[in-house]
Structure formats: structure tokens, C-alpha cells
Amino acid sequence: MTAKNTLAVDIGGTFTDVVLQLNKQMHATKVLTSRDDPSEAVIAGIQQVFSESGSSPEQISLVLHGTTLATNAIIERRGAKTALLTTAGHRDILEMAFENRFEQYDVNIERPTPLVPRKLRVPITERITANGDVLVPLDEASVQDAIDLLLDEGIESVAIGFLHAYRNGDHEARVAELVHKRMKSIPLSLSSDVCPEIREYERLSTTCANAYVLPLMSKYLLTLQEKLNALNFLCPYLMMTSGGGLTSLETAARYPIRLVESGPAGGAILAAVISRELELDQVLSFDMGGTTAKLCLLDQGNTILSRAFEVDRTYRFKKGSGLPVRVPVIEMVEIGAGGGSIAHVDKLGRIQIGPESAGSAPGPACYGSGGAEPTVTDADCVLGRLDPSNFAGGQLHLDAPAAAQAIGTRVGDPLDLSLEDTALGISEIVDENMTAAAQSHATEWGKSVHKRTLIAFGGAAPLHAARMLEKMNLAQVIIPEGAGVGSAIGFIFAPISYEVVRSRHMLLSKFDENLVGEIIQGMREEANSVVSSALHGSEEVSETATAFMRYVGQGHEVTVSFHPDSITKELLHQNFEDTYTTLYGRGIPDAEIEVMSWTLNVSTTAEELDSVKDDGTGTLSTFESHKKQNLVDIHGTHQALVVERDSLSPDTFVEGPALITEKHTTTVVPQGYRVRKLRPSNHLSLEKEPT
Known about the structure:
The chain is α/β, with parallel strands linked by helices. The protein contains 16 helices and 36 strands. Helix 10 packs across helix 11 (400-415) and helix 12 crosses helix 13 (461-472). The chain is globular.
């Protein structure tokens, strides 16, 4: 889905990217993210791109926006002071979690800290059964006592999550009324509204996370809307969701937890579009910005979609070491390994990277803004991977001596290493961390990274892509056009969509067609109301539906697709058996099958690029007259050509060592590698030279 003139904004932890598609021409800029008020950087970036393009707000027909603000608030624990009102006797669900150990043999294992401390998890006398019947009536006196506590504690946001509220949310709704009467301005998040699904821990965790970021995100979105209105924008504003779709700003402000991976989702969409454009069957998307690195697997041009995600995995990317949220999400792994990630020496004398980041202020030492901590970008600067005079489109002139000082003082001197060896050590550690994360993620999904094509974008990814190729034995690297602002470009290709879920248990042997029809119709009405509020034209919409099914007695479901208008017991049974056999090799004869939950997604049609198969041919091009600079790698110091990307002719090779510079990133081409601009897409293909 693309409007003629579209403005896309992606807020990261370090940079805010602004992309303007104006009359089929692309204009882009990067500005440092304003931490105290992110909307300031957004407006500054918009004004800058308007100045460069000679355009104005009145020409824009659609504004698209994605952000990692919700994710960063959870990771950094900068959200609202939140309370949870929950069923008496179940206040400790958030700490009991799954009652397992994600690392069995580590005696010092640390679990994720709940967003709501125990004293603010307040018990309410009530109980709903799994069938939705009232077992213990709601005791409103206990609610009033709880409100007294909330007022005394100065609570800023309230989550309400009762046992089996996905089946009957009446008690939650009544408690919300009582809280609103005495705390009129307090934002409320109800589990029956935010996440109406079975599994109490994930439902409460998701509801608490929504409540935790709700005041911050709603304030930010309202402020941004007011500033855009003041600039005379007359078009709709849509928000990118973690599931890869666009939704209205009002819906995003109500359910900010759906934005938890909205920025990275744009990058995954771009990778999917490019993989279909270039007819690439197996792809690894690699998005490395200033604060984090995101990796995503794609097969036959499709991402892996899920309804479960963990924020802030703290233990070697292990499943179970993060805070679970149940929202539609493009499955990926995200780690604290960006250009601004800080390097330090641990107690065992090892170089460690992140997850702490220098952010946008003061930023890496080489930014010259007072930063003194050594970062990955400082290491890249010392290694000669950046053109000091053309960094961030010339907006920042890199301070190489400051980078050398930070790396030498904080890391090199304690380890008695030379400056170059220290910088190489930092670079190698961050590359190993990203490689380990990618391989762990692939293994978790029963896949491999071997011989996949890496699509690298974000300001830092093209600097590290060649080393990732070597470490994971990948086939090639694609550097998209506009790679430095890739996630924002991905927003332009995203459809308007919304997914609704309902948990309604049903044995397949007792399939009730009328009940299923009622469930689907209820979901359809809710999804259509959201999608219609975000439509800016007469786009057609389509529906996709899934059932979460399993054999009775199993602990996990498989996702089974079906058409919402032609569902039958026999068709659902066949689809389940086919899906199960594809995943596990065989089904279980004569076993009873059950449905746990249903989902419906309503979506517009996303735009596609014309596909073109690359034949891999080209001619060698030389740039002997271009300037050169020292480039350090594990094999030594080399004189690398510095070539502007725009000066490359299509289907010509440039052999390494070389730096291919552009406005918002640099592609490092080591010795033994070569790069080629593809026709007609203008993407770069980086690969090892044939032997």
C-alpha cells in the first residue's frame, strides 16, 4: 500500500530516520533522536527533508510512523509507575511465570524482573471459571480498598487482569468503572481487552506491559499529532505495528504494546519485498542501527509470524529469559549490539559489548559531543571503516582522536593491547554476538542460516555485513538502495491491517459451525472498525484466519490457516493434519483434536516490486584516481578505495579493499570480496571473489 506522496518516520534509540517519497522520488535524512521529547527530532527531520526536497506538508497524502520507544521504555525500565489488580491468590503469577528454568544448570540464573513489584500487585476478591461462569462474586469493598492504596502510592497507570477474563470480562469492566470514578485521569488496561487469550502468565504480562508504556506512548503520540497539525499536515497519520501492518494513531495510543517491535517490523517488510523482487528463497534480514541489532529469517519471501514475543532477553538470547507479550509480531531476535553499544572489560578480563548504549546524547566518543565511553562506532572509526568527512550525510564530522582515546583508555590499556587490536577485538565480539543470536534464533525455529542471503540495512549493518557473511558461511549480502534508512522505507510497503484473537476452546469432534460463525463475525466487526478508521482511500481489504490447534493432552498448538467464509469440520481437520505432518513428519492416528484460539486478520493489499532474477554477471571497474584510506581487518592494514555509491555503474564489480559510501551508511568490502550494483534495482551485491 503506497500513497503518491508519503512521509515515513522511524525513531530509533540513536537516530531518527525520515523518508519522503515524493512523486516517485525518494528523499531521506537522519537526525539524532531527542531523548527527552522524541517529537522534537521528528519535526527537525521532517523540516530538513522538506528543505532538501522543496516540498511542503500540504503535498503529503499519508504519514507513517514506527518507533522503538515502547521497547526501550521496557528494557530501560522508564515506564509509568504501574499497579495490577488481579484475582485474590494469584498476585504472584508474574514471578512464578512458567515455573521452569530456562537454563537448567546455572545456579546463578536470574529471571526477568516483573514490571509491577509485588506490593503494587493488589488482590481483588472475585473468581470466574474457565467456562465464564461466576464462581465468586466481585467484592466491591476490596476494590475500594485497592483504590485507596493506588491513591496513596501515586500510581500512574493501572492494569486489570482477572483469572479467565478472556472468557468473561464483566468483572474487569466493573472494576474499571469503579477505578475511573475515583481516578478519572488514570489510564486503564484490561486483559480482556488487550489480550483476550488463555494462559494467565502471558496475558497478565502483556497487560502489565501495555499499562507500563501507555502513559508515555499516548503522551508522545498526542504531542506529535499536535505538532504535525500545527505544521498544517492535512493527511491521515498511521502507526506501524509489530505484526507488520499499519493502524490508526488512536488505536496505537490505546494498545501501545502492539508497537513494541514496530520499527524493526518495517525492516523485515523491506527485506521481504526485496527477497521477492530478487527471487531469493532463503534470506536472513540484518538490521543494525545505533542501539540494537535485529535479525529475522525469511523463506520464499515470507517472514515468520507469531503471536508471542519476548522483550529484553537477558540470558544469551535464551527463550524464557525475557518478558513475554502476546501480540501479533514478526518473529525476530533483537540484541543490544548497535553502533552505540558500549564496550567494557569484565571481571574476567574479557571484552564485553552492550547492552548499554551511548544513545544519541552524548553518543559515541567520535561524535564529538562529550561522549567518553568506547562504542562499536568508535571501533569502526579507528579501523578506517568510516569516511570522517561524509558521516551521516556530512552532518557529523567524526572525531577520530576522541574515538582512539576512549578505546585505548577504557579497554586497550587494561588489557595491554594496541589501539588497532583493541578496536578489532570490539568489532569481532559484536560480530560474534550477532552471529550467535542469528544461529540461536534459526535453531529455535528448526532452520539454518547456512547459505542464506543476508539483506543488510540500518546505519551500521553494511559495515559488518562481510564479516557476518564469513562467520555464518552465507551465500551473499544484499545492501538495499537507501539501506541507512531501510526500516522507514519498509513502512511504505506495509499494508493497513489489524488482527483480532479470541480464545474459545472447542473439541473438533464437537465442532459447532454456528458458534464458530459467531466468533468470526465478532472478530470481523472489531478488525473492520480499526482498519476502516485507518483507510485513507477506497482500498480493498481481505481476510485471513487461523486456528490454534493441538492433539488433546499436548502443551502447545500449531497454527492452522482456513478461509473464514468456508470453514467446516472436515476442512479444519485436514488442514491440521497437513500442518502437523509438515512440522513433525507424521500425525497421531485416532487422537482427539482441539481448538484453543481463533484469529482473524483484516488487511489491505501491500505493494510489490517487479521481480527480476540476477544472473550474477558483470564487468570489473577500477577507480584508481579515487582517494584511499587505511582499512584495518584481521589480516592487517590495507589501502582501501573510497567510492561513492552513486558513482557505481550497474553490473560492474568493485574489488576490495574498498569503502562504498553513501549518505547514511558505508559498505565495507574487505580484501577478497567484491561488490556490484544490480540492474535495475540499484541494490548492491557483496560476495566473496570466486576462487
